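Protocol step 4 of 5: obtain the predicted structure for the target chain.
Materials: sequence only (see below). No template structures provided, no constraints applied. The aim of this step is simply to have a reference model before the mutagenesis design in step 5. Sequence pasted as it appears in the construct record:
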Amino acid sequence: MTNIVVVAGGPETKHTELMVTAVGNEKIDHLDIEWTMGPDLPGFQKGAAAITSWDGKKFFTIGGVGEDGQIPMSVIYEFSCFNLVCEWNQNSERLKLTYPRYAAVAMRMPDSLFDRFCEQT
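Step 4 output (structure tokens):
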């Protein structure tokens, strides 16, 4: 499995930087690791939450504010790589928050925690 560190977006930028830390079962020596430019985000996104998929094959940025820096967004961008070729996708209807968010927190919840939480509410 390939391990990639992703840094995306921020004030006044759509840039994505990538750092590959392992390819297959082979870790890359920390002295050989370098940041490289990846594909730009589809749009400006600052203050977004970020999370990986359960299988670790996709990465999502959620909400944030756009280029104006003022209005929270409901957009979700999906980042994926195949054979170290990476891309951002936005399926506007499937990947969209019901309510716009800025500086939110996103986390994966294991089923056991989710089940306990739902039983109490």
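Step 4 remarks: Strands lie at 3-8, 16-23, 26-27, 35-37, 49-52, 58-62, 73-82, 85-89, 96-101. The longest strand covers residues 73-82.
Proceed to step 5.
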